[in-house]
Amino acid sequence: MSPLLGFLVFIVFLTASLVVYLTKQFQLENSNYSNFKKMTNTNTNTNTKVKTIEKEKVVAETLNGRFAMIGLIAAMGAYLTTGQIIPGFV
After folding, report:
1. How does pLDDT run along the chain (90 residues), one tens digit per residue?
2. Cα 86 to Cα 39: distance, rounded to the nearest angstrom
3. Where are the beta strands (DSSP E) in the chain?
4. How distant is the alpha carbon of residue 61 from its chain centre?
5. Handedness of CA 43, 45, 46, 52 (dihedral sign)
6. Are 38 and 52 spatial neighbours (Cβ–Cβ below 8 Å)?
7. Which positions ≥6 away from 30 have C-beta within 8 Å?
8. Among 27, 32, 46, 70, which residue's Cβ finds the most Cβ atoms within 10 Å?
9. Which residues pair with 52 in a beta bridge?
10. Angle in degrees, 0-180, between the axes of helices 55-82 and 3-32, rounded to the nearest 10
């Protein structure tokens, strides 16, 4: 097996395990999160407003943030190894 093929197999394995881990984490967060979590406005007014946060939005924002961090790490890795943000793109 060539070193490049071994490296590619390692990257695919690492990506697959990351996807499995994140899937389990999101399932755990969904089971723990309550539909009726509320945020209250802390103003001293007599009219207090109560906002409800939908579970899907919280999960979507968490997923978006985690994938953004993975993208930043991938961009740093590409820059460190090739000197380009997008390798091969002129």
Report:
1. 788 888 889 988 998 898 888 888 877 777 766 544 555 555 555 566 777 878 788 888 888 998 899 899 988 888 888 888 777 776
2. 41
3. 38-40, 50-52
4. 8
5. negative
6. yes
7. 55, 59
8. 70
9. 38
10. 160
Amino acid at 47: N
Write down the pLDDT at residue 50.
75
Instruction: Decide: 59 and 84 in contact? Cβ < 8 Å.
Output: no
Polymer length in residues for the chain? 90
Whole-number Å distance between alpha carbons of 24 and 46: 43
Q: Cα torsion at 27, 9, 87, 21 (round to 10°)?
A: 10
